[in-house]
User: What shape does this take?
Amino acid sequence: MTHKSLILCLGCMPGLFFGCQESETERTVPTTPRSSAPEYEKYEGPIKSISAQEHPYRVKREQMGSRDLETGIYKLDDEGIPLLLIGKKYPVYHPVFLAQYGLNSLEMYRTTGDEDYLDLARRIGDKLPETALKQDGKMWFPYTFKFDLHGYDDQTMKAPWYSAMAQGQVLSLYAALNEIEPREEYVEISDRIFRTLLPESDLEAEPWCTCISEDGLLWLEEYPMDPPNNTLNGMLFAIYGIYDYQQLTGSKEAEDVLRGSIATIKKTIPNFRIEDGYSHYCLRHPLIQDKGYHRIHTRQLEFLASITGDDEFLEMAARFKADGLIADEHDD
Assistant: This one.
């Protein structure tokens, strides 16, 4: 395939570059905060099938964002698969980067009809399982570099580490691939990824990315730590993946996890809001706020409104949008 300036918008992952360090193989897993509570709260309203145009990943594209190879953010391997350069130096198969690149490639294919983009998305779909940890019928996609969350050296994720956000984004990629070219292989891989997002009954199991709080709320953790961070954008991207998988398969288990996740957001979203300011990135670190992530939170709430028809999500999205406009004035 001839490279056609394939480029990627990294608007939902700027924080992944802050605090990134060179690749390591040492792994330290924090003690797990998972609850032995057998049940978790579930959203009881409708779950709707939305049109392709309403899905946040279905964006008509004539280009793939605003970053290209010349930025030094990534390079291509011998198969033409993008490798993210950590610190512009260490090339890694980054699961979120690959998932987004593949999803954007599929939208380029839908927009342009250019088979090269479809071929690239297929090859990313073929490559990801080669990078995965396969365990107990599950498929985990590792981050293979050390990461200091928010730059805090006492909040270090040591390689390899795993994330509900990555699992969800890759799950969305396989659902999108299967939509264009239905394959049993894509569904089987999706099944294995989804199992990583089920609440774990074995509290000593590793890795993990899902926990139940003491008050019976289901959390999908972008950065699995003890205590949990309860990161908003990462959990919502994981919800995208669970929704896509549930729509693909009709799985009752997936619907339960989806309803549990939505219930958690509905109950806790006021805790993330800062009136007339940018929302909290996570609940554990209330001082961390970011203009870009605030806009992502707003769009994600609009997505929840579209799949549930719940006015509370739409109203909260409107409040977030208004808060952001006021915060922008102060920011300027």
Notes: Confidence is low (pLDDT under 50) at residues 1-31. Residues 14-18+30-268 form one domain. Helices lie at 95-112, 115-131, 164-180, 184-195, 232-249, 252-272, 291-308, 311-331. Residues 252-272 form the longest helix (21 residues).
